[in-house]
Design a protein that fits this description.
heterotrimer; A mainly beta; B alpha/beta; C alpha/beta; B: FAD/NAD(P)-binding domain; FAD/NAD(P)-binding domain; Arc Repressor Mutant, subunit A; 5-stranded parallel sheet; globular; C: FAD/NAD(P)-binding domain; D-Amino Acid Oxidase, Chain A, domain 2; 11 helices; 28% helix; 26% strand
Chain lengths: 103, 458, 382
């Protein structure tokens, strides 16, 4: 899904930053949360652990814990409470079973 | 002797006013806030580089929001403010904090919990689809990030926030597909006497309804949610509800904001070993406190704002002040007793109004009994309504914590915040006993995920 | 005199894993009528809140016969009980740190003895260890691997045994606190706080941390110390770590262990235990113990430091001074049996304990050597 889920309604003249989602460089804006940066560019944040479906967050206030994503380096971020920073690199899929083996 | 240490958790309207009150008495309270900036959720501030004026962000509450923000900013060094800091546990006379990898255990002489509220949710088919958001979350998207949660949004649920957020979306230029309220218009008439406790707030509410209708957005009351349709991978495509006359209505949408009023964040009160009692009107367990916010706990503990009981932001300011005065008084410091009397009266008025809201926008508990077995009840663990019913049938579990142990309901990352109330209703309905007997999910630390890296050098 | 009286062949006080499995085997294998009494809810304390290790290695060599017997039950538990207890034969590895490399020799010695007693262990060091289990930290120098050990879900196990016993005709009474128990003639008479009376010619006390007050009523006071394990669980992450892992060390603080369940969550246990008061029926995790546990975990498996824990819990366990249970017949009273005080190590052997006690009660003998567990080692009564 190339279309973004979230629709920007105002504050559209902020400086651009770029993040990488699944290896694709995506434009976002300074002041975006990681969640907004991801969902302004795409439809979902992550795979569900227990179903075939995807998730796109729920509460946006750090309570539901639905929006935890993996970074490219294997770390975890709660997308709604993390400020997007230029150069951030995240994935929307679950890592492979070798995730604990890299130090 | 060192000055008594007062810790305030939360920096929304209650926390800010409590901090102000404690600072005014010459103490330096520690204010611990999960947010990046004070304001809480309802008066949440936008990032520094955003430019929208207060009126755009907070509507009729702009002045109050600004007053809370200004009040906080004026405190400067007279408080010890810890932003982006989680209180993950309260135990052994200490508040246990985490901020990034840094952790601390802070002892206290008085603790004022102003933990705020989150949306109260009733599950429905499809609420786990991408594009379904909590009502409060949809408001945060707009207020704090200037985005709409979708290009065509259905607002579904009940409560004053439903109308407020829908009208804010319309005003901001978002496309709102429909506003669908589960409570009936007649319930509002019944609640009028209590709602008249705050005529101006009541009037604001009526104006919101008018604004939604004037924008040509369908506004239906007395609906029963049927399903959110969509694709598990790509998300929401529409919402179906049933009207009072049995007719089904479908609305195309790529996003749903749902919420049934709010529920207090009581996990920290629970960990601090507060006593809880069942509230018949709102059908939930609430921490017990006296009129000033004093809780029944081993170490002086005060509860204020929506984190104790949902009475709204205005009440939160008053109850934050009142709890702080009660704490100061219990610490043996001089306090203005006249101010306490005034504040008690004010909080009482909000209490009456909140009673009216609970009657006007009732928690649709009977929906729980009607949920289909394949409906996801716990979004975190993907536990279905049927899983819980079967667990009860097989194991005899007749209480939420026991059902949790056997079915994983409420065992996920959110710790039952979003399924706990509905789970209790499902359990009570299936077991055919009062929901009070279904109990409540006991709070377990950490109240939010705690990094295993905690305590590691940065 | 209108209090209801329940009669049965065997009365069991204590609905943990020991009592529940004993009730099950008394019905299943011996056809005895059984009444199981639990003061709280079945399996809610030590049996339901422990780590869930189905681990034989590390147990005293003399206990392995019992542990092997129990393993056979775990392997067929789902079928036997008609209920999934999430038993996973995932392997178990016990490791030691560089600082305590003297433990490698101990591991080898233990492995040699264990092989004589039906437990096959493979000692792994250096690159062999690292190649097979690349998630270990650099402090880990050796591991003793048992392919046939694993883990199960403690929340489900004891209740599954109790329900299966019930299906076979056992009577189970929860929320029933026995205030007084005595023997009059050939019958034991247990009186509940609410006045209900339970009678049986055989009494089995499996009341964990609460057992001391009951054994004392038969002239066999024992010292039981109530403690609370420090338990945590992570968010679900892709299944990647098969074996349950534990550390071999003389220091309690270093004794961290973890296992990943099939759904993906990683359960953590060990390190410092907290105090508990059995009478309160509730215990709390000390936050400092959680922090210490996480610190120890990072040393054991550094990559886990990227994850979060989402919940902590504990329960009330009964510890004996020598860490061995009291198991077998009373020294003072005929028809009275004990199985309690498993000192934080009862989960794996639980079903075996139930089967053994049932056998002992029903037939008067068992092939399992119980000489190390005699109550007389504390009471001195012969």
């Amino acid at each position: 899904m190339s279309q973004g889920r979230f629709v920007r309604l105002a504050e559209r003249d902020r400086p651009a930053i770029h993040i990488s989602i699944d290896g694709t460089r995506v434009r976002a804006m300074e002041g975006d949360t990681l969640m907004v940066a991801m969902l302004a560019a795409g439809g979902t944040l992550r795979q569900s652990e227990f179903t075939e479906g995807n998730r796109a967050g729920f509460c946006l206030m750090g309570a539901c814990q639905d929006c935890w994503v993996w970074t490219e380096s294997g770390h975890r971020l709660r997308a709604c409470s993390t400020v997007a920073e230029d150069g951030m690199s995240v994935t929307t899929s679950q890592p492979g079973a070798s995730w604990p083996n890299h130090g | 002797m060192a000055e008594p240490r007062v810790i305030i958790v939360g920096a929304g309207p209650a926390g800010v006013r409590a901090a102000e009150t404690v600072a005014a008495a010459g103490l330096t309270p520690i204010v611990i806030d999960e947010g990046r900036r004070a304001g809480g959720q309802i008066y949440r501030r936008q990032p520094d580089n955003f430019r929208r004026p207060y009126g755009d962000l907070y509507g009729t509450e702009a002045e109050r929001a600004k007053a809370v923000h200004d009040g906080f900013d004026a405190l400067g060094d007279s408080i010890d403010y810890r932003a982006e800091t989680l209180v993950w546990n309260i135990a052994d006379g200490h508040v246990w904090t985490a901020s990034g990898k840094a952790q601390e255990a802070l002892p206290y002489d008085a603790l004022i919990l102003c933990t705020g509220a989150t949306d109260r949710l009733m599950p429905m088919a499809g609420w786990d689809l991408p594009g379904t958001y909590s009502l409060g979350g949809s408001q945060v998207a707009l207020k704090a990030q200037a985005v709409s949660i979708g290009s065509q949004v259905v607002f579904l649920g009940t409560g004053p926030l439903l109308y407020l957020v829908a009208s804010q979306y319309i005003k901001a230029g978002a496309r709102v597909a429909a506003v669908l309220d589960t409570s009936s218009f007649t319930a509002r008439i019944t609640a009028l006497p209590d709602l008249l406790a705050l005529p101006s707030v009541l009037w604001n509410g009526i104006a919101l309804t008018r604004a939604i209708k004037a924008a040509g957005v369908p506004l239906l009351t007395g609906v029963t949610p049927v399903a959110i349709q969509g694709d598990a991978k790509t998300g929401v495509t529409g919402v179906t509800v049933r009207l009072g006359n049995g007719e089904e209505r479908h609305f195309a949408a790529d996003a749903v904001a749902m919420g049934y009023h709010l529920r207090p964040e009581t996990q920290l009160a629970d960990l601090a070993r507060c006593i809880f009692a069942f509230d018949d009107l709102t059908r939930q367990y609430l921490p017990v406190r006296d009129g000033d916010g004093r809780a029944d706990a081993p170490i002086p503990l005060y509860l204020a704002g929506d984190g104790a009981k949902v009475l709204g932001a205005r009440s939160a300011e008053a109850s934050g002040r009142l709890a702080a005065l009660a704490a100061l008084r219990d610490l043996g410091l001089p306090v203005d007793k006249g101010a306490m009397i005034m504040l008690r009266r004010e909080v009482g008025r909000y209490g009456r109004f909140a009673r009216g809201l609970a009657k006007a926008f009732p928690w649709p508990h009977s929906h729980a009994a009607a949920l289909a077995d394949d409906t996801i009840l716990c979004r975190c663990e993907c536990v279905t309504v049927g899983d819980v019913r079967r667990t009860m049938d097989v194991t005899g579990a007749a209480e939420t914590n026991r059902a949790k142990a056997f079915s994983r309901i409420g065992m996920g990352r959110c710790q039952g915040r979003y399924c706990g109330h509905a789970a209790a209703e499902v359990i009570a309905a299936h077991g055919d006993f009062p929901v009070a007997d279904a109990g409540r999910l006991r709070g377990q630390a950490p109240v939010k995920p705690l990094p295993i890296a905690i305590g590691e050098p940065e | 005199m209108t209090n209801p009286v329940t009669h049965s062949d065997v009365l069991i006080i204590g609905g943990g894993l020991m009592g529940s499995s004993a009730a099950f085997f008394l019905r299943h294998a011996h056809g005895k009528s059984v009444t199981l009494i639990e003061s709280d809810l079945v399996g809610r304390q030590a049996s339901g809140t422990n780590f869930g290790n189905v681990r034989r290695q590390g147990r005293p060599i003399h206990q392995l016969h019992l542990a092997n017997r129990s393993l056979e039950i775990w392997r067929k538990a789902n079928k036997l009980l008609g209920s999934d207890v999430e038993y996973l034969q995932s392997g178990h590895i016990r490791v030691c740190y560089r600082e305590r490399s003297e433990n490698i020799a101990k591991m080898e010695e233990y492995a040699a003895d264990a092989r004589q007693n039906g437990l096959d262990l493979e000692i792994l060091t250096g690159n062999t260890l690292r190649d097979r289990f690349p998630f270990f930290g650099t402090d880990v120098v050796a591991g003793s691997y048992s392919a046939l050990d694993g883990h199960a879900n403690p929340r489900l196990a004891a209740p599954a045994f109790a329900r299966a016993a019930q299906k076979l005709g056992a009577q189970v009474f929860e929320n029933t606190r026995i205030s007084h128990v005595t023997k009059a003639g050939t019958d034991f008479i247990a009186t509940a706080k609410d006045g209900r009376v339970f009678k049986a010619p055989i009494l089995l006390i499996t009341a964990g941390a609460w057992a001391g007050e009951l054994s004392a009523q038969f002239g066999e006071p024992v010292k039981l110390t109530a403690r609370s394990p420090t338990m945590s669980v992570t968010e679900p992450v892709p299944y990647a770590i098969a074996p349950a892992v534990g550390v071999m060390t003389p220091l309690e603080v270093e004794t961290v262990y973890f296992r990943q369940v099939a759904r993906g969550n990683i359960v953590l246990g060990g390190s410092t235990r907290g105090p508990a008061v059995a009478e309160t029926y509730r215990s709390f995790v000390k936050p400092q113990n959680t922090l210490t546990q996480l610190q120890q975990l990072r040393r054991l498996a550094p990559a886990l430091a990227r994850l979060n824990i989402i919940r902590v819990w504990t329960g009330i366990e009964g510890y004996m001074d020598d860490s061995l249970p009291v198991m077998g017949p009373s020294g003072t009273t005929s028809g009275l049996f004990y199985a309690f005080g498993f000192s934080g190590s009862g989960f794996q052997i639980g079903p075996g304990v139930g089967q053994t006690m049932a056998e002992l009660i029903a037939t008067g003998a068992t092939g399992i050597d119980l000489s190390h567990y005699r109550v007389e080692r504390f009471t001195g009564v012969k």
